[in-house]
Design a protein that fits this description.
Protein name: Glycerol-3-phosphate dehydrogenase
Number of domains: 2
GO cellular component, one term: cytosol
Radius of gyration: 19 Å
InterPro entries: 6-PGluconate_DH-like_C_sf, 6PGD_dom2, G3P_DH_NAD-dep_C, G3P_DH_NAD-dep_N, NAD(P)-bd_dom_sf
Largest sheet: 8 strands, mixed
Pfam family, one: NAD_Gly3P_dh_C
CATH topology of the largest domain: Rossmann fold
Keywords: Oxidoreductase
Distance between the termini: 64 Å
Number of strands: 8
Order of helices and strands: EHEEHEHEHEHEHEHHHHHHHH
């Protein structure tokens, strides 16, 4: 019975590809992991404990949230009944809240008693974690014990973990990089050469940094591994969902079909129009994000490339 088991060191909430990848990475690093999944699925890892009970996940001191942003509040509300001040809660959601531009850590504060929070970011992808390919991840938290716990849980020969104390900045950077990665895939497929692509990335990062400053984040976080580094990696990661989606849109594939080709949920799709409106309201120059919003609405490839470099 579960009450006689040793408490797991890491609890992961989210049985999708990203949650299972994080669970696999923690298992590979030597952690005892329990995974919460609503899905009735066959477990390929006999050493991984899978449960449908939030109380079981909360037996771990470090709890990692890996669910889509639209369901995050509901999941946290249910999980919050089992959490306390002793828990360290970290999320790996590369998006912002479904109701506005609140961060997922904002939702954790609102829906649970946990206060020592963090977020995961950086260039690492689910496939790299599953296959154990070398990569890097960033943990953002104002609490050194959260950074230390995540590093202990995930760092190993194939995964390097870096820390930053700019939690909000890392959350925004991860979300904005997801948006810009669609632009990278789009521009590559539309015929942009290395020089044009470099200009797009540099301009997009500058705009993202201005947006982050307007949102109360540290601009420099966008220029680190969780921002610039993550976006640069998207050039080489042809299977990154955002890049796949961007390439499909440049081939004039309808959005719904392009979403299916990406295979994993792309948090940036509902986020881009909201970011464009935020930029307009705050009078932040963000032509790239306006162009991305038009791309999702079916804009033509060459016209959109021109738009990205307008202004």
């Amino acid at each position: 019975m579960t009450e006689h088991k040793q408490a797991p060191s890491v609890g992961v909430v989210g049985g999708g590809p990203w949650g299972r990848a994080l669970a696999t990475a923690a298992r590979r690093a030597g952690a005892e992991v329990v995974l919460h999944s609503r899905r009735d699925q066959k477990d390929d890892d006999p050493g991984l404990s899978v449960t449908v009970d939030y109380a079981e996940v909360a037996r771990a001191r470090l709890v990692v949230i890996a669910v889509p942003s639209p369901v995050a509040r509901g999941v946290l509300r249910a999980l919050g009944d089992h959490l306390g001040g002793q828990h360290l809660v970290v999320h790996g959601v590369r998006g912002l809240g479904a109701e506005g531009l609140e961060t997922v850590s904002d939702l954790v504060r609102e829906e649970t008693p946990a206060r020592r929070l963090g977020a995961l970011g950086g260039p690492v992808q689910a496939g790299e974690l599953i296959e154990g390919r070398p990569s890097a991840m960033v943990i953002g938290s104002r609490f050194p014990e959260v950074i230390a716990a995540v590093t202990r849980a995930f760092q190993g020969p194939s995964l390097r973990v870096y820390g930053t104390n700019d939690l909000r900045g890392l959350e925004w950077a991860s979300a904005l990089v997801g948006c810009l990665s669609i632009g990278v895939g789009y521009a590559e497929e539309a015929g942009a050469g290395p020089g044009l692509l470099a200009a797009l990335i540099s301009r997009g990062v500058e705009e993202a940094a201005r947006l982050m400053a307007a949102a109360g984040c540290e601009e420099r976080t966008m220029f680190g591994l969780g921002g610039y580094g993550d976006l640069l990696a998207s050039i080489a990661l042809e299977d990154r969902p955002e890049v796949v989606l961007g390439k499909a849109l440049a081939r004039k594939v309808p959005l719904e079909q392009a979403i299916g080709m990406a295979k994993l949920r792309v948090e940036a799709i509902p986020l881009i129009p909201r970011i464009a409106r935020f930029a307009e309201e705050r009078k932040v120059d963000a032509a790239t994000f306006r162009a991305l919003s038009d791309i999702l609405a079916g804009g033509r490839p060459q016209a959109m490339l021109d738009r990205m470099f307008s202004g």
